[in-house]
Amino acid sequence: MAKTPTKSTHKMTPQHKAALAQGRAEGRAVKSYLEALEKNRPKRGRKRTPDSVKKRLGVIDAQLADATALQRLQLVQERIDLERELEQLSAKVDLSELEAGFVKTAGAYSQRKGISYAAWRALGVPADTLKKAGITR
């Protein structure tokens, strides 16, 4: 007769649970900072200003009166896109809180995961931020 597998009665120790929680917290801090850097990375080409966007919105409003149905559709979509862009241009992005969390945890995270200075730099993390985190070349 085959033995039935017995249920394991091993439980995690409080230290193990604390280590897992710390790892998750460090991972969240690193992920949040890297995502914010990616989202706010400067784009190539000429930078749009709120004034240039407003000027284009005025041109669109003037063109709508004489536009055909398809042109009107495209102009309305462009206006929606420009209004969204205008909101983003006026919203100030403050990375200081995310950076502070990154600096606090990135050294231990980097060491535990074997992540090099060059890998952080390739993702756009500034050298001075890495220095604050204790990550060196």
Q: Regions with pLDDT < 50 over 5+ consecutive residues?
A: none
Tell me the strand percentage band.
under 5%
Rg to the nearest angstrom? Answer: 25 Å
Structural class category: mainly alpha
Helix-strand pattern, N to C? HHHHHH
Count of extended strands = 0
Q: Shape from CA axes? A: elongated
Largest sheet, in brief, is: none
- Count the DSSP helices: 6
Q: Helix fraction? A: 55-70%
Distance between the termini: 61 Å
Describe the structure.
- The mean pLDDT is 88.
- 69% of the residues lie in helices and 0% in strands.
- Helix 1 crosses helix 4 (96-113).
- By secondary structure, it is mainly α.
- It is built from six helices and no strands.
Q: What characteristics describe this protein?
A:
6 helices, 0% strand, 137 residues, mainly alpha, single chain
